[in-house]
Amino acid sequence: MKRPALQGEGKKAVRGRRRAGRTLRLPNASGLTSKLGAPITLLTDFGNTDYFVGAMKGTILSVNPQATVVDITHSIPAHDIEAAAFNLLSCYRAFPAGTVHVAVVDPGVGSERRPILVQASDYLFVGPDNGIFSYVYDSEPNSKVFQITSAQYFRQPVSTTFHGRDIFAPVAAEVLGGLAPRRLGKLIRDPVRLKPLQAGPWKDGKLRGRVIHIDHFGNCITNITRPDFQDASRLEVAGKTIKTFENFYAAAGKRRLMGVWGSAGFLEIVANQASASKLLRIQRGQPVLLVAR
After folding, report:
1. Residue 250 to residue 186: CA distance in whole angstroms
2. Exposed end of the chain (fewer CB within 10 Å): N or C?
3. Omega into 77 within 30° of 0, i.e. cis?
């Protein structure tokens, strides 16, 4: 039931109250109506020793004081777009429908690279068009991408070195409040993409994949998924053959290499209480070969 306007309450106040009401209509692909409380998340390579993250949060709250802002991480290695893409992929669905994910790892800030908004299933993503949302595109094939050009939603003046504060933060605050993506700019069909996430295909009893991420513990996350695994018997990587596949890290002796299905849904090469990446002397991008029985 609609609440009547209070006596003496102006039209501007009524509009503000409606925007801050119990529910708000979010303009995503599913036509979702989300309960208030869906947050804005931040994922950056800014670290925590400078003012950058605080400035983004301040801008968001200046535009939308009711916003809840959640940090995913600000410890992405500097300029590492692939690490940001993987971390975003691995956690964006953990948040409630209607969440606006802001991801800023932006070595091209101030150049001709485009600022974009991505509309994917029950989520919205805001950041630079440099491949950072590539794995979201792979997982959400019906994604829509809009180039952000409507400067009236930017913080002014716009710094050429800090679009996180001056473009992405205020735009995220606006779309959380119900701004339709089409009001930000035109739909584009050529967003920048990283190398496709998918492994394979199988050929002659072998499937070629790669290491797509190495985490804090030295676990090597591959792009091999359970459907890929089929009747595989072993994994070959950096001259080593791995035949042991377990369900948890402590299932084998210390420093023993094995495969484990990680929480992100990919096959990980791990070593119990040791760094698999150091034992194998490998980095992200290392080829792996899955061999059938």
Report:
1. 51
2. N
3. no
DSSP 207: E
| Helix spans in the chain (H) | 11-19, 52-63, 81-91, 134-139, 163, 169-176, 226-229, 276-280
Q: Amino acid identity, residue 90?
A: S
- The pTM for the full model equals 0.86
CATH class in words for 24-188: alpha beta
Residue identified by tokens 């992100």 is: 264
Tell me 123's DSSP state.
Answer: E
> How far out from the chain centre does Cα 131 lie?
11
| pLDDT 10s digits, 209-228 | 999 999 999 999 999 999 99
Contact 141, 29 (CB under 8 A): no
* Separation of alpha carbons 193 and 210, rounded Å: 17
Phi, psi at 260, each rounded to 5°: -135, 140
Question: pLDDT tens digits for 154-172?
Answer: 999 999 999 999 999 999 9
As annotated, the residues of the chain forming the CATH 2.40.30.90 domain(s) are 206-292
Region 71-88: what's the mean pLDDT?
98
Cα angle 54-55-58, degrees, rounded to a multiple of 5: 85
Q: Is residue 133 within 8 Å of residue 103, measured between CB atoms?
A: yes
| Sign of the C-alpha dihedral computed for residues 111, 117, 120 and 125 taken in this order | positive
Find out whether 102 and 88 touch, Cβ atoms under 8 Å. Answer: no
Superfamily for domain range 206-292:
Bacterial fluorinating enzyme like (2.40.30.90)
* DSSP secondary structure letter of residue 66: T
DSSP bridge partners of 117: 126, 146
Domain with CATH 3.40.50.10790 in the chain: 24-188
Average pLDDT, the chain: 88
pLDDT in tens, 105-152: 999 999 999 999 999 999 999 999 999 999 999 999 999 999 999 999
